[in-house]
Amino acid sequence: MIEREASPRPRPGEAVHPGIEPLLARLRVRDAVLAADFLRHDGHWVEWGGANRRFVPFGADADGPWRESQLYHRDYHSSPTLYVVVALRDIGPDDGPLHFLGRGASRRVNEALDYGARGVPYRLTDEDVYSIVDPAEVHRFIVPAGTVLFIESSACFHFGSRRPAVPRYQMQYAFVSPVRNDFLELWRPQRIYPVRDTDPELRRLVLDRALAAPS
Known about the structure:
The structure is a single chain. By secondary structure, the protein is α+β, with helices and mostly antiparallel strands. It has a domain at 69-188: Clavaminate synthase-like (Double-stranded beta-helix). The chain has helices at 21-26, 30-35, 103-113, 126-130, 184-187, 201-207; strands at 43-46, 54-57, 60-61, 64-65, 82-87, 99-100, 139-140, 148-152, 158-159, 170-175. The termini are far apart. Residues 10-14 have low confidence and may be disordered.
C-alpha cells in the first residue's frame, strides 16, 4: 500500500507492516522508501478499562529498536490454524528464520500470562516469554531447501523475520475455516442458554436454531 496523502493526518490510517522491508529490498525500492522519511513506530500504546496508558515496545537488538511486530504471538484469526511451511531455498540463521515454541511450552506461557485476557498484549516481548520458558526450548526453522514444517500457529507462539540479512523464501499452505473462528464450534464446549416458552420471540429465534422464523 502506498500512502497518497502527506502525514500527519487528523486521523490514523493503515500502517504497512515493517516486516515488508525484505520484500522492498528484493524489489530494489527499499532505499527509496526509507529516504522518503515516513513516520515509523517502535511499539504500541495500550490502555484498557481506564487503567494507566503504557507503551509496549516491539523490542531491540544491537542495531537498535525493532520497528516491526515480529514478537512472540499466536495467530488468532481462526482456531485451529494449521500451516504447512515449505522452505524453497536454504534458510540460514541470518535469513529471518521462523522461531516457535512447542505446544507444551506455549501452554505454559499462555497460562502464566493469561494470554488473551484484557490488558495482556497480543505480542509478547522476549523478556516476558523467557521468564517462563528456557530459550533452549525455542525451535528455529533453519533448514535446507525442501524441508517441510507442520505447525499449529494458533496454539504455538512464534515469530520470524527479525532484520534478515537475506529474505527467506518459503511457501505456506494454511488450513483455516472459510468463516473465521468457525472451527471453534467443533471443539470448544458450547454454552447452552435456556429457552422457555415464555421468553420473547426474538430471544427464542436467536437461541433456538430449530425454531422456524414466522412466515
